[in-house]
Structures are given as structure tokens and as C-alpha cells.
Design a protein that fits this description.
The chain is mostly helical. 50% of the residues lie in helices and 4% in strands. It has 5 helices and 2 strands, in the order ααβααβα. Strands 1-2 form a two-stranded antiparallel ribbon. Helix 1 packs across helix 4.
């Protein structure tokens, strides 16, 4: 399962990078899902086929991870759902910020 999820993560990266240059100050989120999706959907029929995904540099494991309903195509909704899942997984895998120590009163010393 982890292997499938890692392939799905690679798919998201491929969809984000397909046909676009990344500037050094570009936002981490990348282009809108519909823009990234549209770059891989070569025939613009609203569904990414296995062939289109392979042409984008991915494999059948990534395709199976993205094809949530198993109908043989990745819809923009499936893509958006998988992307949201990956964002949530990434957020959960980040270490949490250290707990801030309690505020201490400032002591004024008389001179």
C-alpha cells in the first residue's frame, strides 16, 4: 500500500510539473488542480487514461492509486480528492512545532 501511495505522490508531482517551469519563489501548492490535470489530459476529454499517465512519466501503480472508483480513468474529481489526501498526509507527517514555554513575568530590578 505504501508503494502505491508513493506512486500517487509521484503522480501529483508529475501533474504539477508537466509542461511548466517552476520559479524559485513559486508557491508550494503549485498550479490549480484543474490546470495540472489539464496538462496530463492530452485529449482534453476530462479523464486521464492510463496511456496519458504513462506519457506523463508515471506507471500503472500510480494510475490505480488515482483511479479511486476503478472505472479505468482518472476524473478531475478523483485527482482533486487524491491531491487533498496527499496534502493531509504531508501535513500529518510534518513534525509539530515545539510547545512554547509559559510566559514569565518580567522582573524589574531597582538600581
Amino acid at each position: 500500500m505504501t508503494n502505491v501511495l508513493s506512486h500517487a505522490g509521484l503522480l501529483a508531482l508529475a501533474l504539477l510539473a508537466a509542461g511548466s517551469a517552476v520559479a524559485t519563489d513559486a508557491p508550494v501548492t503549485g498550479p490549480a488542480p484543474s490546470a495540472a490535470f489539464g496538462k496530463v489530459d492530452g485529449n482534453h476529454n476530462g479523464t486521464i487514461s492510463l496511456e496519458e499517465l504513462i506519457a506523463a512519466g508515471m506507471d500503472d501503480l500510480a494510475f490505480r492509486a488515482m483511479d479511486i472508483n476503478g472505472d479505468g480513468g482518472i476524473s478531475s474529481e478523483e485527482y482533486a480528492q487524491r491531491r487533498a489526501t496527499e496534502k493531509e498526509e504531508a501535513k500529518q507527517s510534518l513534525p509539530s512545532a515545539p510547545e512554547r514555554p509559559p510566559e514569565r513575568p518580567i522582573l524589574k530590578l531597582d538600581k
